[in-house]
Amino acid sequence: MSAPAPRWQRQGGGTVLGVLGVLALGVGLALGRADVALLGLPLVASAAVTLRRPSGTGSVEVRVGAEEAAAVVDVRVRGPVGTELVVLRAAAYREPATTVVLGPARAASLTARLPLLHSGPQEVLHVDGHVVAAGGDLLQRLEPTTAEAVIAPEQQRTTTLLLPHRLTGRPGGHPARRLGDGLDFRDLAPFAPGDRLRRIDWRATARSPQQDAEPIVRRMDASAEAAAVIVLDGRDDTGSVVAEWSGERPARTGTTSLDLARPAVAAIAATYLEAGDRVAFHDLVRAGGGTRSGGGRRRLEQIRAAVNRTAPRPEGVLRPPVLPAGAVVHLVATFLDDDVAGLAVLWRNAGHRVVAIDVLPQPDLGGVDDQRRLAHRVLRLEREARLDRLRRVGVAVIPWQGADRDVLLRQAERYRGPR
Questions:
Q1: Ramachandran class of 12: left when φ > 0, alpha when ψ lies in -120 to 50, beta otherwise
Q2: Which residue of 201, 311, 390, 419 has the smallest Cβ count within 10 Å?
């Protein structure tokens, strides 16, 4: 059932003018004073104007677009016939509202540029207000309107590929640890059943000291693609400002964990897809919020679109994905509890190469009282112990915030760990 249309509300000014005008006319006529009676005529005329209600309802439309690191907000208000002023209350990013008076006009517009504070789905602007008519005696409420947008993060790059411990996939761009038809030379060996004739190295055969020896073949390493899986823990969106952890004011939280996670997922996916590998993306708490394994530019756009729509779900239930055999798994999380860390250990024990992408922002303890400061210290120590346990079982831990992530990725690439 649709909501009733807003009605005009009378403030009482027209009635007062009418009463004063009638009194002035009555007194002037009773006393025979034409000047007093004439004073009442303008009041009665003003009252007649204010008592006439305009027809129709007002509407407000808000559009949001991203342009050069700013959110461009376009607010358009159209009032009914007789509208004189538009009074708007606009609240950006859930901050206290600002009152703006537009007019005099039936149609009014307002354009503003707001800073982009976060990426992902968010409420950019909330607008309500009134249209004013009859010299301020009539007000009509505008339906509250909320403008939401999905803001894409700044694109980042990483140049290091972490491959699975064993490449078992289809032919690709990486040398595998088995004989095959790749481009990397492995060794020379006597011809054996199954070897192809085009692999015979006639020069090596001619130099062989044994005249009746089998022909010598050049054996090559096989090439294979890597199966990469990116898994995001989207339960929380922890900000750098610790004092705002319990609040809901996005303009004051600072950089959040999802602000770091979204470009991290996109950068990792782009690196593997550009190398010709197949990539899958999964959100642990959002059913249907990921993409299946695939390659190509289209797959990258699908992953970016999926991760950009990721919103925090504090009450979400973890739904671990089914991983392909011999995958390299990038687990993007804050690791503030044991649940996600347990998944990393489970996947590592199953033979997958696991990389923990740490997206917890550097904390800002400004304005934090002693009790919260102590609680944060305990939480930090527990988290550090959790990450140390991951390192001991062969999980590479890479903090995404900071300029050292590529160096740490290269160090992790050289470390193969237990098979």
A1: left
A2: 419
Indicate the pLDDT class of residue 338, thresholds 50, 70 and 90. very high
For residue 206, give the amino acid letter: A
Question: pLDDT (tens digit, 9 = 90+) per residue, 235-274?
Answer: 989 999 998 887 778 888 999 999 999 999 999 999 888 8
Question: What are the Cα distances from residue 299, in Å, to 14, 60, 254?
Answer: 65, 38, 31
Pairing mode, if any, of strands 227-232 and 328-333? parallel
3-state secondary structure of 59: strand
Phi, psi dihedrals of residue 307, rounded to the nearest 5°: -75, -30
Burial of 293 (0-12, 13-18, 19+ CB in 10 A): middle
Distance CA 304, CA 27 (A): 78
Q: Whole-angstrom Cα distance, residue 13 to residue 323?
A: 72
Q: Which residues does residue 98 pair with via DSSP β-bridges, in sequence order?
A: 90
| Fold classification of 227-414 (topology level) | Rossmann fold (3.40.50)
- Is residue 19 predicted with pLDDT exceeding 60? no
Instruction: Kindly write down the DSSP assignment for every residue of 375-386, as one continuous string.
Output: HHHHHHHHHHHH
The number of beta carbons lying within 10 Å of the beta carbon of residue 82 is: 18
Q: How confident is the model over 56-87, as pLDDT tens digits?
A: 788 888 898 888 778 899 998 888 877 778 88
pLDDT category, 50, cuts 50, 70, 90? low
Q: Which CATH class is domain 59-151?
A: mainly beta
d(CA 196, CA 178): 16
pTM of the model: 0.77
What angle, rounded to 10 degrees, do the helices at 257-274 and 297-308 form?
Answer: 170
Please choose, from the candidates 80, 126, 81, 83, the residue with its C-alpha nearest in 3D space to the C-alpha of residue 102. Answer: 83
Domain boundaries, given as residue ranges, for the chain: 8-51, 59-151, 174-224, 227-414
Can 59-151 and 227-414 be said to share one CATH topology?
no
Banded model confidence at residue 219, pLDDT cuts 50, 70, 90: low
